[in-house]
C-alpha cells in the first residue's frame, strides 16, 4: 500500500481489475492496473457501499482510430463489482477502413460473486471502424447483469448510423466444474452493423435502422438478478397486444383505471412513455439467461426506460447500490 | 487466404470429378441392362444425346433429384407457418411506409444470412461437427420466437431424413443417428446438449445427398425467400403473380448471391445479427393481438 494511485502495467491499452471480499466484510479492490489509453478510477469506498465501484474511462473521453483496449476483470468468490462510465464512449473516425478500433473485456465471475456493468452507450462517430468483444465466464452461483448499447452517433452533426462498421459480441460461458474442464457457451449475442454491406443490399444503414437512435442488449443471469429477470419477462408478457382495441366506454375506462394497483398504474404510465419515445423491446429466456433487446428513437428515451425498469424492480440497487445505476438515470 | 481457397476449390473439383465418374459408371450400367427400354421411353431426346452415349442425354443424378426435393415448397418442414418477422414488421410499421421489396426483403435476407448461413456452410463442410454447431447456434438465437421457428423446422427436417430419405441415400447417416440419440437424451434439460435447429441439419443432409456447398447455400436462402413471399401473399401485401415476379426478379437472385459471397468464409463464431430491428420484430411477434403465423 505505497502510492495511492493505481499502478500501471506495461502494455498499451491493457488493464486488470481484481475484486475480492474483505475479511472485515464488504468488498475491496485487490488490484487495479491500467495503461494509456485506458483509464480506471475507483473512488475510495464508503462503509455503506454495497459493491466496489470502478469507472471505466479513456483519456480524452474516447478512443481514437486504431486504439485497442484489453481489460481483464476478476470478481473473486463472494465479491461484488459495479462498473460504470462517465459519458458516452466516443469512437473517433478511422483514417481508413482497415484501421480498427477495439475494446475487449474478459470477465471471470466466481462462485457467489456478482458483476453489474451498466455503462453509458458507445457512440461511434462517422467513418469509425469499431469491434468489441465482451466475454463473461460465470459459475452456477455467480450473478451477471450487463448492458451493451450503441447510438447512431452525433446527431448534432447530422450523424445517423454514419460509421463504417460496428461489431459487438457478447459471450456468456459457464465455467467447467474443475479448472481444466471445458467451459460451456451459454449465450453468444453478436451485432454486426456495416455501411458497405448495407449499401450493397440496396439501402443505407440508417434506413435499415428504422429511425432508432440507440440499440441495446441487457443480459441477466444468476441468483441476485433472478427476480429482475422474472420482472422483465413478466412485464414483456403484460405488454398490451399490438392491434388490440379497447371497446370500453370512457367512463368504464376511468372507473377501471381508478381501481388499478400501484404496479399497474406504473406500467400504464411506462407504456405511454414507450409509445411517446418510440421504444421497442422484447425479452427472452435463452439457456438460463434472460436477454432483453431494446431499440429507442432517442438515446435519452432509451436511458430513461432502462433506468425506470431497473429502479422499479430494485434488485440492482439492493445488491450493488445506487451508484451502479448512475449511467442509466 | 488465397492458398486456402485454392485448396478448397481443388477439393471441390476432386469431389465433383469423382461424382461425375460415379454417375457415368452408373449410367453405363443402367444402359447395358436397359438400353432398349430407355430409348423407347426417351425417344424425343435421342437427337441431343450426350457424348457418353450416342442416343441419350445423361441422367441428372441423384443429387439433382434431392436438390429438387429439398427446394420444393411441399417439403413438409412447416416453413409456411412462419413469417420470419414479416407479420410483426407490418404491425409495427405505418401502412404507407411498409414495403416488402425495398425494405423488409433485403433486411430479412441479410439477417438470415448473417445469423444462420455460416452454420449451414460449416455443417456441410464438416458434418461430424453437427452437435457442436447446433449447440453454438442455440446459444446465438437470442429470441424466443426465432428459436421456436428454427427448432420446429429442424425437427421436421430430421423427421424427413429418418422416415423418408434415410432408406434411399447411400451416404453415411451415422452422424444423424447419433444426433437423434443426443436429442432424445437432451429433453427436459435447462441447457440442452442439442436442440435440432434447422440450419446445421440442413447443411448435413444436403451434404449427405450429394448437393454442392454452393447449391446448399442457395437452396437454403431461396427457401427462406419463398417462405417470406408466401407469407406476404397471405398477409395481403400482394397477389400470386406479383409473388412470382419477386421470386423471379434479378434483385432476389443478386441478393442471395451477395449474401452467400459475404458469408462464404464467415466462421460460425463470427456470425451475428446484421439487422438488429429483425430481433425486435421477431421477438415482439408475441405481443401481436391477432396472428396468422407462428413467427
TrEMBL record, chain A:
- Name the UniProt key words of this record, in alphabetical order: Chaperone
* Molecular function, one GO term: nickel cation binding
Q: Which domain of life is it from?
A: Eukaryota
Q: Where are the transmembrane segments?
A: none
Family from the record:
Belongs to the UreD family.
**HAMAP family, per the entry:** UreD (MF_01384)
Spell out the protein name for this chain.
Answer: UreD urease accessory protein
Specify the species: Emericellopsis atlantica
UniProtKB/TrEMBL annotation, chain B:
Q: What is any Pfam family matched here?
A: UreF
Q: Per the database entry, which stretches of residues form a coiled coil?
A: 6-33
Q: Keyword set for this entry? A: Chaperone, Coiled coil, Nickel insertion
Asked whether the keyword Cell membrane is assigned, the reply is: no
The answer, when asked if Cytoplasm is one of the entry's keywords, is no
Record's PANTHER family?
UREASE ACCESSORY PROTEIN F (PTHR33620:SF1)
Q: What HAMAP family does the record tag this protein with?
A: UreF
- This chain belongs to the protein called Urease accessory protein UreF
Species of origin = Emericellopsis atlantica
Amino acid at each position: 500500500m505505497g502510492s495511492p494511485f493505481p499502478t500501471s502495467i506495461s502494455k498499451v491499452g491493457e488493464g486488470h481489475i481484481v475484486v475480492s471480499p474483505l475479511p472485515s466484510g464488504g468488498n475491496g479492490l485487490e488490484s487495479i492496473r491500467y495503461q494509456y489509453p485506458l483509464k480506471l478510477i475507483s473512488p475510495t469506498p464508503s462503509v455503506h457501499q454495497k459493491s466496489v465501484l470502478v469507472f471505466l474511462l479513456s483519456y480524452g473521453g474516447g478512443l481514437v482510430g486504431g486504439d485497442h483496449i484489453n481489460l481483464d476483470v476478476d470478481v473473486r468468490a463472494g465479491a461484488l463489482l459495479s462498473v460504470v462510465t462517465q459519458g458516452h464512449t466516443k469512437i473517433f473516425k478511422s483514417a481508413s477502413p482497415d484501421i480498427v478500433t477495439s475494446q475487449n473485456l474478459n470477465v471471470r465471475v466466481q462462485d457467489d460473486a456478482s458483476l453489474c456493468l451498466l455503462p453509458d452507450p458507445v457512440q461511434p462517430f462517422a467513418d469509425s471502424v469499431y469491434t468489441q468483444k465482451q466475454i463473461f465466464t460465470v459459475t452456477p452461483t455467480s450473478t451477471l447483469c450487463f448492458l451493451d448499447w450503441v447510438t447512431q452517433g452525433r446527431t448534432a452533426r447530422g450523424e445517423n448510423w454514419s460509421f463504417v462498421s460496428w461489431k459487438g459480441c457478447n459471450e456468456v460461458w459457464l465455467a467447467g466444474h474443475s479448472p481444466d474442464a471445458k467451459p460451456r457457451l451459454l449465450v453468444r449475442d453478436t451485432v454486426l452493423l456495416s455501411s458497405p454491406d448495407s449499401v450493397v443490399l440496396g439501402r443505407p444503414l440508417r434506413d435499415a435502422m428504422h429511425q432508432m437512435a440507440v440499440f441495446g442488449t441487457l443480459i441477466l443471469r444468476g441468483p441476485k438478478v433472478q427476480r429482475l429477470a422474472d420482472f422483465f419477462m413478466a412485464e414483456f408478457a403484460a405488454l398490451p397486444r399490438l392491434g388490440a382495441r379497447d371497446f370500453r366506454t370512457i367512463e368504464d375506462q376511468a372507473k377501471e383505471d381508478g381501481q388499478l394497483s400501484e404496479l399497474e398504474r406504473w406500467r400504464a404510465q411506462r407504456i405511454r412513455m414507450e409509445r411517446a419515445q418510440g421504444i421497442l423491446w422484447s425479452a427472452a429466456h435463452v439457456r438460463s439467461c434472460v436477454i432483453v433487446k431494446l431499440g429507442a428513437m432517442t438515446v435519452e428515451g432509451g436511458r430513461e426506460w432502462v433506468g425506470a425498469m431497473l429502479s422499479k424492480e430494485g434488485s440492482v440497487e439492493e445488491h450493488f447500490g445506487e451508484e451502479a445505476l448512475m449511467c442509466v438515470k | 487466404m488465397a492458398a486456402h481457397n485454392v485448396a478448397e476449390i481443388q477439393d471441390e473439383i476432386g469431389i465433383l470429378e469423382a461424382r461425375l465418374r460415379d454417375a457415368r459408371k452408373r449410367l453405363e450400367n443402367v444402359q447395358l441392362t436397359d438400353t432398349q427400354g430407355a430409348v423407347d421411353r426417351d425417344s424425343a431426346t435421342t437427337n441431343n444425346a450426350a457424348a457418353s452415349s450416342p442416343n441419350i442425354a445423361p441422367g441428372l443424378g441423384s443429387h439433382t433429384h434431392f436438390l429438387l426435393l429439398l427446394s420444393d415448397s411441399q417439403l413438409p418442414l412447416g416453413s409456411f407457418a412462419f413469417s420470419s418477422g414479416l407479420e410483426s414488421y407490418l404491425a409495427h410499421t405505418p401502412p404507407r411506409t411498409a414495403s416488402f421489396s425495398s425494405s423488409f426483403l433485403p433486411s430479412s435476407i441479410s439477417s438470415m444470412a448473417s445469423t444462420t448461413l455460416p452454420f449451414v456452410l460449416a455443417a456441410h463442410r464438416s458434418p461430424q461437427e453437427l452437435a457442436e454447431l447446433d449447440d453454438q447456434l442455440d446459444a446465438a438465437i437470442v429470441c424466443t420466437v426465432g428459436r421456436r421457428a428454427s427448432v420446429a423446422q429442424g425437427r421436421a427436417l430430421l423427421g424427413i431424413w429418418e422416415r423418408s430419405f434415410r432408406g434411399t441415400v447411400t451416404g453415411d447417416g451415422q452422424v444423424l443417428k447419433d444426433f437423434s440419440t443426443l436429442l432424445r437424451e437432451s429433453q427436459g434439460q435447462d441447457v440442452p446438449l442439442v436442440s435440432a435447429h434447422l440450419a446445421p441439419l440442413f447443411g448435413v443432409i444436403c451434404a449427405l445427398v450429394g448437393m454442392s456447398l454452393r447449391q446448399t447455400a442457395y437452396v437454403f436462402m431461396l427457401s427462406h425467400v419463398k417462405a417470406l413471399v408466401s407469407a406476404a401473399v397471405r398477409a395481403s401485401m400482394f397477389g400470386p403473380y406479383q409473388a412470382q415476379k419477386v421470386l423471379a426478379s434479378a434483385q432476389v437472385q443478386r441478393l442471395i448471391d451477395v449474401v452467400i459471397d459475404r458469408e462464404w468464409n464467415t466462421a460460425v463464431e463470427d456470425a451475428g445479427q446484421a439487422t438488429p430491428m429483425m430481433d425486435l420484430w421477431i421477438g415482439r411477434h408475441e405481443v401481436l393481438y391477432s396472428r396468422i403465423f407462428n413467427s
